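dude i think i finally got it to work??
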Amino acid sequence: MSSKIKQEKWDIRATKKLFQESLKKGLEDEKKQIKLPEHTVKIDELDRELTLDRINNLT
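look at this
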């Protein structure tokens, strides 16, 4: 019975450690984001058809 309790404690510690590592990694990823100039429009913010029209006009 004691081995089961030890195993559960270990699992909780391992889970906590993994959670903390993922939080740290998330913060590092946020810092790595590219900062674009003010008037830059991200493609995700545009409509699909408008984006295709702009691409076709460039080529």
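The CA atoms of residues 43 and 51 lie 7 Å apart.
im so relieved honestly
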